[in-house]
């Protein structure tokens, strides 16, 4: 009798989804596709590192309802086709949810598969409206949108009397999302971009863009690209005589941009959608994150992308906790939608049915010439 029961249980497990089988093995498996190599590598490495800080501590304390959380990360080099292939692999392995993807073109490549397979897609590092509108049952966004960021940038520039605003953007879905945001914010003030130039994704060939925008003579340039190309553009534009100001969207990777520019980072502005991760008097989730970084040791230091990964892991874990002992994809969606007033240590999360954007928080920061970031 006992043998028949055992065989029956094994047969049932074989027919169950892989995420259910993982649960039987006392773990919850997440899939993450992000750049770990190439010109955008620091974004993926920092996002992954921040998330692992939280998940490792969580697992050491017993996990969630007795289940450990396993984060599987695959490198996509910030290329859409590689991201799509990684996502197909995660689908074949039937992970419970996708987590912490990095980039607009890559996330958009994954989105049709997310919808087709009804797979939760949590906290991608992108603010593109194309991933938010129309609302998607499976996609949950932790950060504010690029429209929120560009609205604040244009508001500050115009309040300073700087109305001639150029745009340097990546020639892909991310760059278009940022350009659209700037155009909308300018249009509301009866203005238009004062010069526009592009760079190809994963390229630092910025000579033509520098020539175009320096000739247009804007007073400020909004940069919508990753850190390598933005650093190259800033450096070459200054050499070509541009004396205006540079404003970057958060996706640039603040620490990575600062590292690339060194002393030339002085005065460069970056919009931020996460709490300020520095300072000796931090409280709440920032203090938690700083303590986790300190415990990890090595070369790890606090940065904006790292705290985004940490916060994403913390918020997702709360959703997993709210499901109880039987994780499932529909159950995870319902659990996340129940977080209408969740305080993640000073970072407010407001999900609800039909509302999958947790936050509209945006502020501006300025880089110094010695590797620091000022608010």
Q: Helical segment tally?
A: 13
CATH fold-type name of the largest domain: Rossmann fold
Task: Average the pLDDT over all residues and give the rounded result.
Answer: 94
Instruction: State the total count of DSSP E strands.
Output: 14
Radius of gyration: 21 Å
Task: Provide a descriptive summary of the structure in words.
- There is one protein chain.
- Strands 7-6-8-9-10-13-14 form a 7-stranded mixed β-sheet, sandwiched between helices. A 5-stranded parallel β-sheet has the order 2-1-3-4-5, sandwiched between helices.
- It has 13 helices and 14 strands.
- Helices cover 45% and strands 15% of the residues.
- Helix 3 (41-60) crosses helix 12 and helix 6 (146-159) packs across helix 7.
- It starts with a helix and ends with a strand.
- The chain has 2 domains: 2-143 and 283-359, Rossmann fold, CATH 3.40.50.2300; 146-272, Rossmann fold.
- It is of the alpha/beta class and 375 residues long.
- The radius of gyration is 21 Å and the shape is globular.
Tell me briefly what this model is:
By secondary structure, the protein is of the alpha/beta class. The chain has 13 helices and 14 strands.
Features:
single chain; 375 residues; alpha/beta; Rossmann fold; 2 domains; 13 helices
Per-chain topology:
Layout (H helix, E strand, L loop, with lengths): L1 H14 L2 H7 L2 E8 L6 H20 L7 E8 L4 H14 L3 E3 L4 H14 L3 E2 L16 E2 L5 H14 L5 E6 L2 H15 L8 E4 L7 H10 L3 E5 L2 H13 L5 E4 L5 H8 L7 E4 L11 H13 L7 H19 L6 H9 L4 E2 L4 E2 L13 E5 L5 E2 L1
Parallel strand pairs: 1-2, 1-3, 3-4, 4-5, 6-7, 6-8, 8-9, 9-10
Antiparallel strand pairs: 10-13, 11-12, 13-14
Helix pairs in contact: 3-11, 3-12, 4-5, 6-7, 9-10, 12-13
């Amino acid at each position: 009798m006992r043998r028949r029961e055992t065989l029956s249980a094994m047969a049932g497990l074989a027919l169950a989804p892989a995420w259910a089988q993982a649960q039987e093995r006392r773990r919850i498996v997440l899939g993450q596709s992000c750049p770990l190599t190439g010109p955008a590598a620091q974004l993926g490495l920092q996002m992954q590192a921040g998330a692992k800080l939280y998940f490792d501590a969580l697992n050491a304390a017993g996990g969630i309802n007795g289940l450990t959380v396993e984060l599987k990360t695959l490198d996509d080099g910030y290329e859409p086709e590689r991201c799509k292939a990684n996502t197909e692999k995660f689908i074949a392995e039937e992970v419970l949810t996708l987590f912490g993807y990095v980039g607009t073109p890559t996330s958009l490549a994954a989105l049709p598969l997310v919808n087709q397979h009804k797979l939760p897609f949590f906290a991608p590092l992108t603010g593109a409206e194309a991933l938010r509108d129309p609302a998607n049952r499976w996609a949950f966004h932790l950060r504010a949108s690029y429209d929120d960021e560009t609205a604040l940038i244009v508001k500050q520039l115009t309040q300073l009397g700087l109305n001639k605003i150029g745009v340097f953007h990546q020639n892909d879905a991310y760059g278009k999302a940022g350009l659209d945001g700037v155009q909308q914010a300018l249009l509301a003030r009866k203005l238009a971009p004062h010069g526009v130039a592009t760079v190809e994704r994963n390229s630092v060939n910025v000579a033509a863009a520098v020539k175009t925008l320096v000739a247009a003579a804007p007073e400020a340039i909004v940069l919508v690209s990753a850190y390598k190309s933005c650093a190259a553009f800033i450096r070459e534009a200054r050499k070509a005589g541009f004396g205006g100001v540079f404003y970057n969207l958060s996706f640039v990777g603040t620490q990575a941009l600062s590292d690339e520019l060194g002393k030339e980072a002085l005065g460069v502005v970056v919009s931020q959608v996460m709490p300020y991760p520095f300072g000796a008097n931090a409280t709440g989730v920032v203090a938690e994150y700083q303590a986790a970084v300190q415990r990890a040791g090595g070369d790890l230091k606090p940065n904006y992308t790292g705290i985004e990964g940490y916060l994403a892991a913390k918020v997702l874990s709360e959703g997993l906790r709210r499901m109880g002992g039987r994780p499932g994809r529909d159950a995870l969606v319902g659990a996340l939608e129940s977080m209408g007033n969740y305080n993640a240590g000073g970072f407010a999360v407001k999900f609800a049915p039909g509302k999958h954007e947790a936050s509209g928080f945006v502020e501006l920061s300025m880089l110094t010439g010695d590797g620091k970031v000022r608010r």
